Amino acid sequence: MIYIILFIYTIGAGYIFENSDLYKRRFLTHNFNALSYDSIKRFFLYILIVLPMVLVHSFRYGFGADYSGTYQALFYDVKNGIPLPNLEYGYYLLTKFVASFTDDYVWELFAASVLTFVIVLLAIYRNSSMLTVSLSMIFLSAFYFDSTNTVRQELAAAIFIYAVPYIKENKFWKYLACIFLASLFHTSVWLLLPLYFLSKFKINKKILFLVFFIVFLLRNQLNQLVINFVNTSSIYDKYENYLNAGRGTVLAYLIITGGILLIYIFFVKENDKSKLDMWLIYLGFMFSILSAFVPYISRYVLYCLASLIFIVPDMFKNMNPQTKIIPEIMTYLLVGSYTIYIVFIGNWYQAIPYISFLNR
Length: 360
Description:
Elements: H1 2-18, H2 21-24, H3 37-58, H4 64-68, H5 70-79, H6 89-99, H7 106-127, H8 131-140, H9 143-146, H10 151-168, H11 172-183, H12 195-198, H13 205-217, H14 219-231, H15 236-239, H16 247-267, H17 275-290, H18 298-306, H19 308-317, H20 325-345
């Protein structure tokens, strides 16, 4: 129930805020991020809108296997000076900083949550073309719930989301700096570096589907390649639990990424600025297919799903104004059904019932 109330409050308040004269005046100035009385008031109201979602997330307790398993052990290992060669340095520093103030590991996860959502919510405030839609996608893309368990990766994903405008603005060095920063929390984010260059090319759908087909034919070889690499490297213990995605996970990923892809193909008008969105959608679908056969690849679907925070508003902006209501409803039904399944039916994150560490 708390998630439903939180969603209704955030979207309702966000909609009122986005349609207020105060918010609309932001776009009447040349530099709408410049400091002024209006900008301070806008930002304060924005904080009031998003603060409840951040606090509920940050004060959670016992979500998923990683909460009381991976991150509890990690916190005390760092605090006690035990070497962790496979832990990314950025997260090590964050944990070390928190451990200098407390002996309770829950504050490590509290700090990670706050940092993740400060980055994502700043990205939305500064760059989203449709504020309320982006806020809704925090919940409906499952980013809100994924980040309760895959903590380090979603922190990296948050930095990637912040960096997305740098791709569209052709600011390579800023994008590279963000990817480097994100890699300090999860090294898998380096796979997203080529997106900067790929986004400059329009997707040839025939060639891309040919690539899908070839990859599918080589799935067994790719499977064995990844298994051999993980088994013979020092990262085996770190990624042993992620070698295979369950059938339910694969099917859910295929439905949401495939559904978004179909909506995009049939209802969205492509332009130069939408190339990046298209690449992310296609890659999300390809990763979803591969996750049934190739170990660990399902983790990369999470980056593509997190990107829906910006992709869906862009999709809505590039739809036919006269008929867009139909694909918009289809999109919300798709992502809404996905969220209901993974959170309330499948209980992937053990988020039901909600428990706070304040009353554990």
